[in-house]
Design brief:
23% strand, 11 helices, 329 residues, 33% helix, alpha/beta, five-stranded mixed sheet, Peroxisomal Thiolase, Chain A, domain 1, binds coenzyme A
Length: 329
Amino acid sequence: MPSTGVKIAGVGHYAPSRIVTNRDLEEWLETTDDWITTRTGMKRRHWASEDEATSDLAAAAASAALAHAGIDARQIDCFIVATVTPDYYFPATACLVASKLGVSEKPAFDVAIACSGFIYGLTIASGLIRSGIYKRIMLIGAETLSKILDKEDRATAILFGDGAGAVILEASERDSFLASDLGADGSRPELLYAQGSGARRPLDHAALDAKVHLIHMQGRETFKLAVERMVDATDSVLQKANLEKADVTFLVPHQANRRIIDAMARYLDLPDDKVVVNIAEYGNTSAASIPMALSETVRAGLVRPGDLIVFVAFGGGLSWGAVAWRWAA
Ligand SMILES: CC(C)(COP(=O)(O)OP(=O)(O)OC[C@H]1O[C@@H](n2cnc3c(N)ncnc32)[C@H](O)[C@@H]1OP(=O)(O)O)[C@@H](O)C(=O)NCCC(=O)NCCS
């Protein structure tokens, strides 16, 4: 039995001011607004400026969440950033974010599991609170994927955007965490990866010429697996929580492709207004997409106490997961 429950006490999000529309992409890529809209549902994405890095976006989202919760950063016991675009190879981006918020000496670490980062982070942070180790955790999904995009590759350059979403998790008598279902399969990393300066192929001039530091994806295969895994994870998390598909109030899915989200919605038999979609504005922001979508929905006043939210994601790893969450006042 958990010693305490957990709830979300505040949410916030931030996106860089530079907007890149489909029409902008047409200027240097062999693509069209119509192709991108039809195949992905994306219309715009936000890209960070040269002097903006992931910790800047994360700190802005965290500040918004602190204001929303009405608390000070010094009341946070632990900082977690889910990202695969850290400012540095090390130290962890979470250390930088805590410092930007004026906090030192509190634990801070990153979770690097690509688009599933928020789901993994929510599971870890909820566990830390429910076991009584910490009372308040700042969990942020933050990415500057534009920095590792091959801007000449029309198959990936159109898909990804930058942004950050933050939630403050807090100990609570009533427990919002109902169940989690996580998975990973590392047998085919090349389906979706950025080799970066990893130990498998340390960065040298030849590696740079081969663009190993940028995102590579086999889109069609990834698409198929994304639908399968997200449906399975949703089924499994509802079963663990002893709930039915009909109980779901909101689905907050990772925003990778509108067609993937629509397939999920059809499977769950959810009407449009119960499926949170902001892909047209932000594109795929990896670990940031779910907390950004949640923050927009909560701040619009659409989420009510007692609502059942299912968060679900799929991404590089391959990795996937879902969390069932009962919204608390
Ligand atoms: C990337 C994605 C949008 C591509 O859509 P798709 O319908 O699978 O398209 P395909 O890759 O099969 O390509 C179809 C054609 O469009 C072309 N094409 C690819 N990108 C294009 C673009 N931006 N503009 C115009 N044409 C493009 C391809 O070259 C291909 O041409 P061909 O038939 O002459 O070979 C889609 O596969 C996808 O969203 N994948 C999953 C992403 C995901 O889930 N990621 C995991 C979480 S991050």
